[in-house]
């Protein structure tokens, strides 16, 4: 590792230098007093970009979105246990997305912890719940080596590395980066036995489904999955909530497994073999009285081809085994007609499909409104689709921040539900501050619509009472997202007709910087 | 316990009935699918009030504010690990405030957990970090008894009780409340030896400081503390961040220990004995290079009179021992003149002091702007002052929600910093929805001012660089709290002059329902 800083350095300076040398040059931050030396050290390392957020959940969600697009970790700087707590929901999503991330949690000075000062809490317990590796650096001399290990581990495992950094470790001089280097990850070997076994199943003539996920939902993985399906007559599907799905014109198309368990059951009916390539075995998102949790059909065997990290390579090997020399059919260009009339989830989807710019990154947290989007955008120019991998709402606006930081030359479209948007709405301010090219569309139906559906599906609300319905209602008062966005420095516009939405979306895509469109849509329950 | 519900009930219904029978009749909620049976059951128990929040940190902070004013626990309903994660920061504050609270965290159905569905996470680890008692109810038959134990434990210990409720425990029939009753807490006995020992110290003639906290910062505790000080010539102080401090005209006045360590050192200099009555021994909020963490002067002995729960009774016994038959001097009525000219933290304080209504509940998260408030309000009509007990910012707006729900006949004044307000700004929506009589004043100085001070104090920023300063700046773009408040249904007004602020504050107090005043003030750093 090239040492860019050879004079006497404190722990914070050594940490930032090690991060930058290890390729981690963006830090999403919401610091406090115990992180002030980290903040001060930013000026000594010009390569590190600090991005301020107004809430820790923005910082962690941004690091998730960043990693999905950049393909490498960002750092996140958080303030003690409460700061980590505020970031946990989006760390949960990032854990499920299997993205790399280096989390730096400032703590009280080592000698100060015993006094149980007001902000003292069990940081280790919280960090352990979302991290693949948690380490507390109590000696300044170890900072650089620990940071290098944090990077190496998160890159290799695609699980979050958390470094707990006491304030005195940070401020004490005597750190060094000499001889510290970030170990490069070994590529995941293709399991040739698993490939042979999967090939035999796919040749057996028994109905087989190939379920892809993890790193297989992009270029080479998708190509292999479609080649296999076309050569064997079997079906390939993508996991319900992929981390990053490449799709659109020119890209091999692999349909996603639906969200609702009963739809999955219908889709997989009759399947005798399920081959997992980077995806988990399908389970119901929630349990429902009298309905199955395990969605593998009765009598269906499950075979594991590969885990999330090695899935694309394993699929390529399998495709070469089953269909050497073939290519995959790709989606043909096609766009919906621009609709007219009152805005609905369907017309929103058609407008989006009609106007989606090339190479756009779509961050999708549209929840109940998302169903019509799939078909409406299938033939739009090639794009990436990021989804809510862990089910913890409030991921969209932050993930859009991170995606835009990772790809300043690409537009970002964030499709947001009203209820979810309110979890992390202050991310709009960071979009304004960083002049990020993000267009946020709020599906404003003034309800937790998904819960109104779930209230019926769990059998709790055959005849829901007024108190129950009131607790899922967002219309008293209605939320004015135009005012909120403007209050946070993002130009915004409310639309109720499809023509106006198309006009607003076109303008937002044409003008650099963030925009918000408050799209008033009816509840899908009518 | 009176059973108000004798037919066949499911777990959710038994839970809500037990809560209501145990005096817990408000539930701050942000539910999800796994909590839908709890939501549906609300209509079967009219006594339970469900209060919807748009983010879990609002629900937990509201339960804290509620408990501080109602003197009894509220329930909080959260959705799995991520919902609990979002609530953790304000649970941390509530833990430090030592308030009772019954936290109900919905979980996946017992049989569903093994499938590692997307929202699966380690709820127990998170709950353990903030709770005095954590229990998972896997059998519907146990719900009522477990809920009764949750209430009894939190009331007795003033620590949070967390009940993890799997969805099937909630939806299954077969629960009953027969024979279930909530055990009443035993009063904390006064430790007569500790009283004798403290009396001897206070009579010794050596400089002694009595430090009160916990339950001693109200009526009887304050009266006793002042009686003791007046009879012995020693000083009584209140902990830096009391849970609920009664003060104002007619109330015995006990000065708070300051925030900054160097000021505490100056205040306690020469003290030979420190007697703790419900307060912890004074420690620095953060560690600073070369400065002490333990703020007890060298050579000073520390004596514990009582813990937080029994402090008021112990103080009363001590006062009767040292000064039988005496009464305490109380603060005399006095108000500042209404100031004129540009708004500053000082003139804001004077306007607040001049206009504070009787019996107002002040929720103080004004941080760096708070210093002039103490003197300016010392002679205002009697009021309660709630403070940020755990240092996790974002407590003010939610705590104001809870305080207003607990005391619908009292006005609530929430003094908020701009940076802190943005953590939980959506609490304004709940204030609008519930028509709560809360006036929120935003000290809008467009900076994390406390961190600009701390950057200097930790020795990190003798000459802070532009990147460091930029990371503490909230002016790019400036945040327009008027627009944000209006977007959330709360009428709002921006003021830059003291006269306008007085006018806005008078109007807000005069008109029922929530209001926000965006008070533009300069940074205290100039």
Automatic annotation (TrEMBL), chains A, B:
Gene3D superfamilies to which the protein is assigned, alphabetical: 3.40.50.970
Reaction(s) catalysed by this chain, per the record, are: 2 pyruvate + H(+) = (2S)-2-acetolactate + CO2
Q: Which UniProt keywords apply?
A: Amino-acid biosynthesis, Branched-chain amino acid biosynthesis, FAD, Flavoprotein, Thiamine pyrophosphate
UniProt KW Kinase keyword: no
Report the family membership: Belongs to the TPP enzyme family.
Sequence ranges assigned to domain Thiamine pyrophosphate enzyme N-terminal TPP-binding in this UniProt record: 10-116
The annotated pathway is: Amino-acid biosynthesis; L-isoleucine biosynthesis; L-isoleucine from 2-oxobutanoate: step 1/4; Amino-acid biosynthesis; L-valine biosynthesis; L-valine from pyruvate: step 1/4
InterPro entries, per this entry?
A: DHS-like_NAD/FAD-binding_dom (IPR029035), THDP-binding (IPR029061), Thiamin_PyroP_enz_TPP-bd_dom (IPR012001), TPP_enz (IPR045229), TPP_enzyme_TPP-bd (IPR011766)
Return one Gene Ontology term, BP aspect. Answer: isoleucine biosynthetic process
Q: Which residues form the Thiamine pyrophosphate enzyme TPP-binding domain?
A: 385-518
Q: What Pfam families does this protein map onto?
A: TPP_enzyme_C (PF02775), TPP_enzyme_N (PF02776)
A GO molecular-function descriptor: acetolactate synthase activity
Name it. acetolactate synthase
Q: Origin organism of this chain?
A: Mycobacterium cookii
Its EC number(s): 2.2.1.6
Q: Does the keyword Amino-acid biosynthesis apply?
A: yes
For this protein, the record's PANTHER family field holds:
ACETOLACTATE SYNTHASE LARGE SUBUNIT ILVX-RELATED (PTHR18968:SF86), THIAMINE PYROPHOSPHATE ENZYMES (PTHR18968)
């Amino acid at each position: 590792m090239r040492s860019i800083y050879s004079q006497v350095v404190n722990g914070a300076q050594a940490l930032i230098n090690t991060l930058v040398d290890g390729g981690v040059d963006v830090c999403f931050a919401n610091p406090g007093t115990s992180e002030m030396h980290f903040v001060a050290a930013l000026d000594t390392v010009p390569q590190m970009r600090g991005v301020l957020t107004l809430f820790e959940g923005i910082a962690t969600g941004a690091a998730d979105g960043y990693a999905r697009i950049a393909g490498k970790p960002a750092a996140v700087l958080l303030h003690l246990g409460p700061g980590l707590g505020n970031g946990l929901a989006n760390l949960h999503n990032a854990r499920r997305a299997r993205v790399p991330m280096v989390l730096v949690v400032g703590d009280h000075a080592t000698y100060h912890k015993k006094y149980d000062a007001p902000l003292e809490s069990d940081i280790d317990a919280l960090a352990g719940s979302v991290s693949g590796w948690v380490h507390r650096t109590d000696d300044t001399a170890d900072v650089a080596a620990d940071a290098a290990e944090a990077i190496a581990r998160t890159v290799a495992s695609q699980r979050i590395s958390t470094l707990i950094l006491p304030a005195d470790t940070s401020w004490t001089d005597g750190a060094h980066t000499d001889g510290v280097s970030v170990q490069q990850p070994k590529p995941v070997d293709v399991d040739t036995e698993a490939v042979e076994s999967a090939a035999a199943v796919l040749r057996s003539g028994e109905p087989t489904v190939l379920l892809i996920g993890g790193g297989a939902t992009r270029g080479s993985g998708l190509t292999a999955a479609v080649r296999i399906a076309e050569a064997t007559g079997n079906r390939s599907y993508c996991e319900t909530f992929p981390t990053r799905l490449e799709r659109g014109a020119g890209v091999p198309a692999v349909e996603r497994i639906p969200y609702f368990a009963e739809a999955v059951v219908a889709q997989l009916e009759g399947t005798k073999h399920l081959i997992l390539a980077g995806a988990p075995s399908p389970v119901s998102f929630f349990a429902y009285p009298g309905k199955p949790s395990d969605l593998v059909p009765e009598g269906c065997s499950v075979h594991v081809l590969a885990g999330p990290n090695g899935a694309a390579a394993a699929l390529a090997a399998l495709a070469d085994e089953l269909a050497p020399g073939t290519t995959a059919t790709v989606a043909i260009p096609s766009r919906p007609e621009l609709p007219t009339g009152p805005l609905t989830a369907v017309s929103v989807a058609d407008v989006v499909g009609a106007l989606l710019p090339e190479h756009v990154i779509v961050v999708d947290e549209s929840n109940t409104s998302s169903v019509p989007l799939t078909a409406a955008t299938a033939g739009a120019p090639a794009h990436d689709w990021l989804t809510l991998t862990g089910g913890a709402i409030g991921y969209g606006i932050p993930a859009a921040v991170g995606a835009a930081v990772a790809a300043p030359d690409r537009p970002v479209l964030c499709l947001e539900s009203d209820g979810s948007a309110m979890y992390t709405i202050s991310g709009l301010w960071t979009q304004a501050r960083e002049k990020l090219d993000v267009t946020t569309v709020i599906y404003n139906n003034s309800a937790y619509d998904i819960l109104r559906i779930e209230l019926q599906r769990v059998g709790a609300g055959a005849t829901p009472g007024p108190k129950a319905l009131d607790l899922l209602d967002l219309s008293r008062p209605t939320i004015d997202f135009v005012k909120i966005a403007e209050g946070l420095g993002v130009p915004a516009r409310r639309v109720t007709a499809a023509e106006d939405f198309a006009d607003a979306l076109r303008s937002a895509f044409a003008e650099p910087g963030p925009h918000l469109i408050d799209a008033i849509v009816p509840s899908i329950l009518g």
